[in-house]
């Protein structure tokens, strides 16, 4: 293409545009600090998590993850939910499936509040999570501080929220059925006691 002066007219694109690189660097510096969080109970449900954290948490879901050498159990009676709620217990022969989130650090305090950390219900624990052929180290999860000697049954509301989270976030169907059966069995045992 030529202009009237007979000189060629080109648009040159620089592969290393310093302005673009500077903008990208500024953008990455402005990104807020984040932390990894592994949810295995009601927090697997982004809709329920939003209720406590005050914003949509779907964008923070990375993928389903696996916590090795732990098993699930209902070793806490929640005064707020008036039922048994989930916990993880060290067990070298077991695994727990759940949801790996990457949350903004500004939500950390709200998550601690949801888990009753200041009341001594749960405490933070750092674990390794296997997710998408990678191992994420120092991932926050929560474990019950004073565990019950036997499991307490979930109520129907908690049962449904846990299953909805597991299904919504893509946990394997076999695991979802196992979770369903575990919770259903606890409810049946509880009804027999009553």
Overview of the structural elements:
- This protein has helices spanning 18-30, 46-53, 108-114, 156-168, 173-193, and strands at 34-39, 61-78, 83-104, 122-131, 134-144.
- The chain is built from five helices and five strands.
- It has one domain (33-193): Hypothetical upf0131 protein ytfp (Roll), CATH 3.10.490.10.
- The strands form two sheets. It has a three-stranded antiparallel beta sheet, with no helix packed on it. A two-stranded antiparallel ribbon has the order 4-5.
- Helix 4 (156-168) runs antiparallel to helix 5.
- The chain is of the alpha+beta class.
Low-confidence stretches: 1-19, 21-29
Described by the principal axes of the CA atoms, the overall outline is globular
CATH class reads Alpha Beta
Q: What is the count of distinct domains?
A: 1
Biggest β-sheet strands, sense, barrel: 3 strands, antiparallel
Strand content: 25-35%
Average pLDDT rating? 88
CATH architecture: Roll
* Helical coverage, percent range: 25-40%
Radius of gyration: 23 Å
SS element count, helices: 5
The succession of helices and strands, N to C, reads HEHEEHEEHH
End-to-end CA span: 88 Å
Supply the helix-strand structural class.
alpha+beta
Determine the CATH superfamily: Gamma-glutamyl cyclotransferase-like
Spatial arrangement of strands, main beta sheet: 1-3-2
Total beta-strand segments:
5
CATH topology: Hypothetical upf0131 protein ytfp
């Amino acid at each position: 293409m030529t202009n009237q002066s007979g000189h060629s007219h080109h648009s040159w694109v620089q592969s290393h545009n310093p302005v673009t690189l500077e903008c990208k660097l500024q953008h990455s510096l402005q990104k807020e600090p984040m932390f990894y969080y592994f949810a295995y109970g009601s927090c697997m449900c982004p809709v329920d998590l939003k209720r406590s954290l005050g914003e949509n948490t779907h964008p923070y879901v990375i993928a389903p993850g696996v916590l090795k050498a732990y098993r699930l159990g209902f070793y806490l009676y929640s005064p707020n939910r008036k039922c048994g709620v989930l916990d993880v217990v060290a067990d070298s022969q077991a695994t727990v499936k759940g949801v790996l989130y990457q949350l903004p650090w500004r939500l950390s305090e709200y998550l601690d509040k949801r888990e009753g950390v200041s009341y001594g219900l749960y405490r933070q624990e750092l674990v390794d999570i296997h997710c998408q052929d990678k191992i994420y180290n120092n991932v926050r999860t929560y474990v019950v501080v004073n565990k019950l000697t036997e499991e307490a049954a979930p109520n129907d509301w908690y049962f449904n929220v846990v299953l909805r989270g597991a299904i919504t976030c893509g946990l394997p169907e076999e695991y979802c059925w196992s979770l369903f059966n575990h919770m259903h069995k606890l409810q049946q045992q509880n009804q027999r006691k009553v």
